[in-house]
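Supplementary notes for students who missed Thursday's class. We covered one full example, reproduced here. Read the sequence, then the structure, then the short commentary at the end.
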Amino acid sequence: MTQHPVSSIPGDGDAIWLPVRDVGSIGTARRAATSLAGDIGLAPARAADLAIVATELATNLVRHAVDGTILVRPVRSSGHTGVQIVAMDSGPGVADLRESTRDGHSTAGTLGIGLGAVIRKATDFDAYSLVGAGTVIVATVLPAGTDPPPGGAAGISRPMAGERVCGDAYALRTVGDRVDLMLCDGLGHGPLAAFAAQAAVTAFQDGPDAGPGALIEHVHHSLRHTRGVVATVVGLDARAATARFAGLGNVYGAVVRDGARQVLVPQPGIVGERHVRVREVEVALPEDSVVVMHSDGVRDRWSLADYPGLVGRTAMVIASTLLRDCGVQRDDAAVLVAKVGPS
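Structure (token representation):
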């Protein structure tokens, strides 16, 4: 189990979602990335590398993709802050993504150096593509000398169409050999929902070294001044091969292995509203399983078996792919993924 997962900075308020439809979108993506680099104090040389990454990924979407979208957001890894770019589209997909990242390869009469440049400039790079379904690329630029972020646990959130802030949020923390995950959905939409969700994140991160039920109770008492959230907490102990689960409201959770899903069913209720005695459930956590959590803004009729090879990619690529294909525009949406492997 990854013990120090890369995650978005709490609040994720500087995250920017950009549609990429035409040539003008390339400059918009580059400016968004360099502006964020300035805000977080990224060194000029790395900011220049980031500008190349943003330009090449946006250019690739304009030239080859259908319904291209870019997410630009701050990330923190090993005590350093950088910028992560997620480029996703709905087609046509690439049959051999490894070949397409090789310098000189081209599918449109170009020099084919774009993705090769992204790989060289980024601290970390991962991608997944399926013919007919599209491509997801995740590139992270951190300060020089920073180790690449581990890929075992990651999340992604997106506000509903027309909103600037997202009422869904997630958090990860490491306590000894255990990794605790939380995904929550603030009631309603907009700033008040986002405030409640971020208050839940803060309470979770500052909560006691306890099981998921006690953590939900702690978050509950911290949210009485807000409109409340629905939330699920999962504690993963890869060494003991167990996952402990507790949840109130409609936040989905499942342990997936070899295409089979064991769904973690939460109790009815609202965290921060009326007190409910929270039950904990323990389930097996086999090696090579994947834990998937998401809000009700993501349709639950997905199957990792429909994506050959996806479970071999980083958690961020898995989460982004599910959000792209199953997220709905009329609601906030968030996906949190953790991969289980040898300790």
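Commentary. The longest helix spans residues 44-64. Residues 63 and 161 are 25 Å apart (CA to CA). If anything here is unclear, bring it to office hours.
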